[in-house]
Amino acid sequence: MSGYRVGIVGATGVVGREALRVLRERNFPASALRLFASARSAGMRIGSLVVEAASRAAFHDLDLIIFDTPDEVARELVPSAAAAGALVIDNSAAFRMEPDVPLVIPEVNADALRQIPRRIIANPNCTTATIAVPLAPLHRAAGVRRLIACSYQSVSGAGQRGVDQLWAEVQEAGASRQPPDRPRGSAFAAPIAMNLIPAVGSLRGGAFSEEIKVAAELRKLLSAPRLAAGVTCVRVPTLVAHGVAVHAEFERPLDAARARELLAAAPGVELVDDPVAGRVPTTLLAAGRDPCLVGRIRLDEAGCLAFFAVADNLRKGAALNAIQIAERVIEMGLLTSKATF
């Protein structure tokens, strides 16, 4: 049997486990699969597979490696994995804005895969992906000039720690009938149950790092260096899927009817846009699914096109997009296998 030797680094985390699930769902042509995590997780079993300790010397004889690690771990290990001959798809922010590393969403800019000089491909931020998938066809038609985006980001964006914290706080609040206190070692800046927290990432000169990332990544993905983007990111007490309210101004006229036509034909988009019938995109509808759900399409009072988009942050925002990149690389004949069985 022929196929590719695949590794997942960060396999014990929520995105790493989702990547393993998506590989199997999509029958990815893997002839061998190895899982890696930190030394403290080495020896853990995930199904029939045993987790190995990730290190610079661990990545021999692999064709493709998907990384889902903190930025600092990616900076240390990704170059070693690429130097060992693997093609690396990295979910961290470590390499996204480097000019010689393509930042890719296949539905948006697959042509960027034609140049992979460092054998590293960056996966965008999950909120960026939720905006970019529906925005790209609109941008191609009318040229986006300016946008305002407000995100509503689930706790799984902070990993398993965030999920566990929400459940613990919900149980506490349910028992006491009072809003919970912020626990020690919290994943968030405030209690998350029964709350909204407009603080995602670290503060940098008035904006949070998540907001800066989204604006910069949109410019790179859309090849729109002059795009003016105002972004506010909010952590909300939902488990999976991020929602984003977008108001976009375009260079050329684009009304709501034409936007619906473009989005209905766009790959990776599913319209859920019948508010009269109660059909609006929600996080529960998007969770566990592949498409980006888009609705509430309208012109606002300022003449901007407004829409609401929701996508599963663990799938299209991370694991699924990485595997779709790998599939596209194979289609383009850019991934070779070290072994044939």
Automatic annotation (TrEMBL):
GO terms for biological process: diaminopimelate biosynthetic process; isoleucine biosynthetic process; lysine biosynthetic process via diaminopimelate; methionine biosynthetic process; threonine biosynthetic process. Its EC number is 1.2.1.11. Keywords: Amino-acid biosynthesis, Diaminopimelate biosynthesis, Lysine biosynthesis, Methionine biosynthesis, NADP, Oxidoreductase, Threonine biosynthesis. Pfam families: Semialdhyde_dh, Semialdhyde_dhC. Residues 5-116 form the Semialdehyde dehydrogenase NAD-binding domain. It comes from the Bacteria. The keyword Magnesium does not apply. The keyword NADP applies. It catalyses: L-aspartate 4-semialdehyde + phosphate + NADP(+) = 4-phospho-L-aspartate + NADPH + H(+). The active site is at residues 126, 242. It is an enzyme of class 1 (oxidoreductase). One of its GO terms (molecular function) is NADP binding. Homodimer. NCBIfam families: asd_B, PRK14874.1. This is Aspartate-semialdehyde dehydrogenase.
